[in-house]
Task: structure prediction
Amino acid sequence: MSKLPFFLFDSAENKKIEFKPDNPDKVKIYSCGPTVYNYSHIGNLRSYVFVDILRRSLKILGYQLDQTMNITDIDDKIIRESIHHSVSIEEFTKPWTEAFFRDLEKLNIEKLEHYPFATKSVEEMVELIEKLQENGYTYEKEGSIYFSIDKLKSYGSLSKVEATGIISGARYDADEYEKDNVRDFVLWKAPKEEKEKSWNTKIGNGRPGWHLECSAMIRQIYSSGVDIHTGGIDLLFPHHENEKAQSEAAYPNEKFVKYWMHCEHLLVDGQKMSKSKGNFFVLNDILDKGYDWKVVRYVLLSFHYRTKLNFSFERLNEAKVSIQKIQNAFNRISSEMKSKNIESIRKPINHSEIISCRPQEFALDYFQNFVNAISDDLNLPKALASIFDSIKSINTKLDSSSLSNEEMIDVVKYFYQIDCLLGILDFTNEKIDNLSLSENEILALIENRSNAKKNKDFKLADSIRDELKAKGIILEDSKDGSVKWKKSE
Ligand SMILES: [Zn+2]
Result:
């Protein structure tokens, strides 16, 4: 009943289809996570924000989630670097893993249910290889084990790569190993030098190939396939094609992935990000320039995930204005309710609260437009446009004081719903030390004063200024029309 429809663009079908999970009260989603040898750059962060938007949207639509993002801590670069620094791979990756989680926290990305580590899933990887050996999909050369793609008819069905052709420019396994076919990929790598970290297992001494990690971790967490598998578009081939091949060849009677979703690239000022061009940014580079995390989050979520995101500092500045517009509208409602002693409702936290907090009457249309946009393959540009339309209408109602108490409460519910997705609004009405007002209340009064000035009601504008002054707030009007406030001495 409470589940609203969701349509998504499935990369395998190459079209938008209706989402029908195995169990809507436990939707299984797997997303390829970071390789922890460095900070995540903002292109990586975009794909993590995309996972967050998918999660938060499905929650608003009434689904319950069981999500996984893996941590790749076995990788050629990691092994090389840990040998170079004479530390174990655990010691080498620990600070990068911590940095990854700190970035997610800074961007208010919700915690998922599972974050498995490759180093803790080697047993499951070995099991998967044994299954593939049993089913006849592997061959061995010089201690390494390969997957033979010729044996699997469906190979290429996800990325639409012809099994016999080779995409130019695509990255193949860059290993210097002898394979029968250039496109076969390695499942298990024999150690090349003595110091190299390896695991002594039933199938020999070595370490897993990257593609194998994800297939095994999905098995480890869910003992089955998943409803949705996500990743950056650059992972479609060969990574996801190979994941699919391994899992379907090992468990031919099971559906590995019901829907594939891929997030597009991020560009900076229209160009591919690269260290040599000086347009390569990690989150801290941007925050250190004085930008708030909220504007970064806003820019990363404001594009449709299937379009290239063109990042620029100008966009961050624009985002600041957009966020303030939404926040101000909420602040106005909030202070209006306070002045009328209307008790507000609490922000919903869990699944049932989010559903029971859906607007029912006055704000139902606003909510419906918003939901229609997110249920249409997470159309965030459309969702944001609907939010600004709603805010315009709400502000007009507030200007003419034509909202009833119940209508105001319904609007508050609407703000809670949109922030379940955006995750950037401030609902606290905490008083600032020594002042009788909270920042939200101050900003709301400033907004009221600006509106009064716009309507040439200078008497009202002055009385608001005086009211703030009496409460210890001094306003400073700047030339560009913006207003700053400070505490009086
Ligand atoms: Zn993966």
Summary: The longest helix spans residues 313-339.
